[in-house]
Every structure is written in C-alpha cells, then in structure tokens.
C-alpha cells in the first residue's frame, strides 16, 4: 500500500509530507465505519476519507479512498472532480462498479454537493476526468492537477 501511496503522490504532484492513515474495519464493524463516515451517503458504507488524510474502509486496500487520502494533503477539489479523480486513478477493490452514468454532465455537476455525489454520477465523473487528463496531455508522467479553487471537507 505504501508503494501505491508513493505512486499517487507523484501522479497528484503532492509533496508527500503528509501521512495517509488507513483504518480497516471488517464487515461486522459497520458501526465503527458509520461513526467515521456517517450514514447519509450509501457509498459511506464502503469507505470515506477526511481532510486529515485518514482513510476508513471495509476494503483493503481501497484505491479509490487512497486517492482521496493522498489528495487531502493539498485539499479536495469540487466534489465531481474529486470523485472523478478517485475513479480514474483507483478502483473499488472487490466492490461492484458504480453503474452506468445517468443524465448529462451538466446535471451531474449540478447534483454534486460538498457532502455528496449521486452514485450514478461516479462513473461519469471518472470518464470526465479521464478526458481532461488525456486531452490535456498530462497522462505521460506529469502530475495531474485539478485546482479549481474549491477545497473543502471529507470524501466518500
Ligand atoms: Zn470518493
């Protein structure tokens, strides 16, 4: 997992001065996960990351949350871009995918709040970030930056 964190630090252009703490809970420890991730977001049942670079998950390793954990060092982007980045660079371990994108990109952007992104929009967000990275030519070793000036709290 340390090697993956190091790779993500390079990909995201973070300095790597922060330490990602990973807290694993077995499926039977759902209450402990809920304590850290809340109950409102269905995705929170799988994992979440706070702005202190602490990852909480019932999967190990859960690459999606590690992306958030590394990115937390510089602050999270707009919810749609942040989830797209995590989808683009990480997988969801043994969890099923997040389903087919629904609605338009504009609807997905509008549906994103600092606290939530509808699960159906995760795939669209991942595709959008992939488009940005690939069309910007920055997937050849350059750090990916999604600095939209929007930094806020924890991520699921
Ligand atoms: Zn996420």
Topology of this structure?
Blueprint: H1 2-12, E1 21-24, H2 30-37, E2 47-49, E3 54-57, H3 63-71, H4 79-89, H5 105-111, H6 122-135
Parallel strand pairs: 1-3
Antiparallel strand pairs: 2-3
Helix pairs in contact: 1-3, 3-4, 4-6
Tags for this model:
156 residues, 6 helices, single chain, binds zinc ion, mainly alpha, 38% helix, three-stranded mixed sheet
Q: Strand order across the biggest sheet?
A: 1-3-2
- The residue-averaged pLDDT reads 83
Task: Write down the domain tally.
Answer: 1
Ligand kinds: zinc ion
Question: How many helices?
Answer: 6
Explain what you see:
- The protein has helices at 2-12, 30-37, 63-71, 79-89, 105-111, 122-135, and strands at 21-24, 47-49, 54-57.
- The radius of gyration is 14 Å and the shape is globular.
- With 156 residues, it is mainly alpha-helical.
- The model has no long low-confidence stretch (mean pLDDT 83).
- The chain contains 6 helices and 3 strands; from the N terminus they run αβαββαααα.
- The chain has one domain (2-135).
- Helix 3 crosses helix 4.
- The longest helix is centred in the last third of the chain and has 14 residues, at 122-135.
- Strands 1-3-2 form a 3-stranded mixed β-sheet, with helices on both faces.
- Helix content is 38%, strand content 7%.
- A hairpin with a 4-residue loop joins strand 2 and strand 3 (54-57).
- Zinc ion binds at residues 64, 68, 83, 86, 155-156.
């Amino acid at each position: 997992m340390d090697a993956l964190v190091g790779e993500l630090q390079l990909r995201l252009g973070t300095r790597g001065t922060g330490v990602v703490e990973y807290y694993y809970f077995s499926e039977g420890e759902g209450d402990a996960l809920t304590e850290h991730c809340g109950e409102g977001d269905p995705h929170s049942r799988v994992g979440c990351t706070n702005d202190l670079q602490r990852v909480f998950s019932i999967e190990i390793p859960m690459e999606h949350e590690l992306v958030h954990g590394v990115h937390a060092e510089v602050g999270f982007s707009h919810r749609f871009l942040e989830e797209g980045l995590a989808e683009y660079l990480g997988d969801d371990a043994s969890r099923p995918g997040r389903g087919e994108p629904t609605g338009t990109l504009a609807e997905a952007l509008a549906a994103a709040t600092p606290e939530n992104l509808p699960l159906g929009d995760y795939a669209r967000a991942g595709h959008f970030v992939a488009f940005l990275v690939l069309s910007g030519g920055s997937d050849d070793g350059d750090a990916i930056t999604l600095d939209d000036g929007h930094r806020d709290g924890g991520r699921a």
